[in-house]
């Protein structure tokens, strides 16, 4: 990989490292943004990356540690000393520093905390006490805290004095003398306000807020709903603890959506809120472990399809043509069910569907399945008739498609809603499981209709 330096020819990192050493590479890389430096070092092996990062200033090394992917970061963490890591973490926002700290083993965590400043160690320890998937792990603590008696002019003076300390200045949080959140005012609103006006007269008192133990996905949905750039985090007495920002929530939504997709695909299950979803992050044995349980479950569920075929073996021997359409039928039912599952799970995730809506959703999806089934059933009837020259078999196929579509959409809606009602992640009831279940029950419907119409 090559990269272009400002006012310099394209440079090969590997060649420069071998020719002039890590100090020369570090000197050239300092002209780049930390994200670009991280990308430039990706072509090197772990030892070479460590050599170059060690030659860079600590603050740049900290940014590389933050921007690196899981494989890159784990290689650095395995090589830096506890003292080096403590210095790097000191250059990062405390919430990001804590996330990185927790990626090393317990003994090294203790050593890093001992090498860190007492203030940083106390803050990181406090964050580690928050639930793994809570906003307490993500919130920034250095936010503008003002009083209602302050004027607009005084507020601008306060911001100028604190601008290097604050992690966000989009909103100002108005507190009383006990730190209780009274209201919020956007910085842009102060620009147009009278410099003599008091913040207590300008602030928005209806504030949407969360507590430190609020699930991060819930907070992300709130921010999306209200189009907020930041969401205040308070304790039980409404005292301001910090603010969770939209950039962190974007990362949360990406991770949560990735987890949901993996679960819907039967690749993962259970509570994986803290799992790293990077493709290269896990070992092959970990991937096997995640997939094996679902494949075993699907294997057992798939055996019911074999049992249905065995039970109707006599009918298949008497009318072999029935077997021609088995793949078509189970494929149609499985696909219809999977479509419904994904639609309903999305509605549940966005709060558009609630448990009390179960009957409405079931009715809606069943009617949708019936209409789809009738449209496909007409095609199936004529297709079966043309292939077998038997109108009766065409009728069996057409009616079966109608029934299977209606049944599969009903099941596809019922299982996620039921899981949500019992506080189970709906995505764990994955599409492959529903597809396999519909295969067996769809065949049962098919053969029962065939026995009723063809008297086989």
Tally of DSSP β-strands: 8
Q: What is the share of helical residues?
A: 55-70%
Task: Give the percentage of residues in beta strands.
Answer: 5-15%
Order of strands across the biggest sheet? 3-4-5
Which class best fits the helix and strand makeup? mainly alpha
Explained architecture:
This protein has helices at 13-20, 22-29, 34-41, 46-55, 58-67, 70-77, 82-90, 94-101, 106-115, 118-128, 152-162, 187-192, 199-202, 216-226, 246-264, 284-311, 313-318, 326-349, 358-388, 391-421, 431-454, and strands at residues 2-3, 11-12, 145-146, 171-175, 181-186, 210-211, 230-234, 240-245. Strand 3 (145-146), helix 11 and strand 4 (171-175) form a beta-alpha-beta unit. The chain is mainly α and 456 residues long. The longest helix has 31 residues, at 358-388. Helix content is 62%, strand content 7%. It has a 3-stranded mixed sheet with strand order 3-4-5. Strands 6-7-8 form a 3-stranded mixed sheet. Mean pLDDT is 84; it is low at 1-11 and 270-275. Helix 18 crosses helix 21.
Please sum up the structure shown.
The chain is mainly α and 456 residues long.
Which structural traits does this protein have?
single chain, mainly alpha, 3-stranded mixed sheet, disordered N terminus
What topology does this entry show?
Blueprint: E1 2-3, E2 11-12, H1 13-20, H2 22-29, H3 34-41, H4 46-55, H5 58-67, H6 70-77, H7 82-90, H8 94-101, H9 106-115, H10 118-128, E3 145-146, H11 152-162, E4 171-175, E5 181-186, H12 187-192, H13 199-202, E6 210-211, H14 216-226, E7 230-234, E8 240-245, H15 246-264, H16 284-311, H17 313-318, H18 326-349, H19 358-388, H20 391-421, H21 431-454
Parallel strand pairs: 3-4, 6-7
Antiparallel strand pairs: 1-2, 4-5, 7-8
């Amino acid at each position: 990989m090559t990269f272009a330096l400002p006012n310099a020819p394209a440079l090969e990192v590997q060649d420069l490292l071998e020719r002039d050493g890590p100090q020369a590479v570090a000197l050239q890389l300092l002209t780049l943004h930390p994200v670009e430096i991280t990308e430039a070092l990706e072509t090197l092996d772990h030892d070479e990356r460590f050599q170059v990062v060690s030659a860079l200033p600590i603050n740049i090394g900290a940014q590389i540690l933050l921007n690196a992917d899981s494989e890159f970061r784990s290689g650095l963490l395995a090589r830096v000393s506890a003292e080096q890591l403590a210095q790097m973490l000191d250059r990062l926002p405390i919430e990001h520093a804590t996330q990185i700290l927790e990626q090393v083993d317990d003994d090294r965590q203790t050593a890093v905390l001992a090498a860190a400043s007492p203030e940083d160690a106390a803050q990181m320890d406090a964050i580690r006490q928050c639930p793994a998937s809570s906003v307490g792990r993500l919130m920034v603590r250095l936010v503008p805290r003002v009083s209602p008696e302050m004027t607009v002019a005084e507020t601008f003076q306060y911001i100028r004095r604190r601008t290097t300390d604050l992690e966000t200045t989009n909103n100002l949080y108005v507190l009383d003398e006990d730190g209780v959140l009274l209201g919020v005012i956007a910085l842009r609103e102060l620009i147009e306000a009278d410099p003599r006006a008091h913040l207590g007269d300008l602030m928005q008192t209806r504030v949407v807020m969360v507590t430190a133990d609020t699930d991060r996905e819930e907070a992300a949905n709130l921010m999306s709903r209200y189009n907020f750039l930041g969401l205040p985090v308070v304790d039980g007495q409404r005292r301001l603890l910090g603010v969770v920002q939209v950039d962190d929530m974007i990362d949360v939504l990406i991770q949560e959506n990735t987890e949901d997709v993996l679960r819907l695909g039967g690749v993962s299950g259970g509570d994986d809120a803290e799992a790293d979803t990077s493709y290269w992050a896990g070992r092959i044995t970990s991937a096997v472990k995640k997939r094996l349980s679902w494949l075993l479950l699907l294997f057992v569920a798939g055996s019911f399809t074999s049992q249905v075929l065995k039970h109707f073996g006599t009918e298949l021997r008497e009318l072999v043509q029935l077997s021609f359409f088995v793949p078509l039928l189970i494929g149609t039912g499985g696909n219809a069910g999977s479509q419904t599952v994904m639609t309903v799970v999305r509605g549940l995730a966005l709060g558009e569907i609630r448990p009390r809506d179960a009957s409405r959703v079931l009715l809606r999806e069943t009617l949708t399945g019936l209409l789809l089934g009738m449209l496909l059933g007409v095609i199936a009837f004529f297709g079966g008739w043309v292939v077998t020259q038997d109108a009766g078999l065409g009728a069996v196929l057409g009616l079966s498609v109608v029934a299977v579509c209606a049944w599969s959409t009903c099941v596809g809606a019922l299982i996620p809603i039921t899981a949500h009602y019992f506080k189970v992640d709906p995505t764990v009831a994955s599409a492959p499981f529903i597809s396999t279940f519909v295969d067996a029950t769809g065949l049962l419907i098919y053969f029962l209709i065939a026995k009723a119409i063809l008297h086989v």
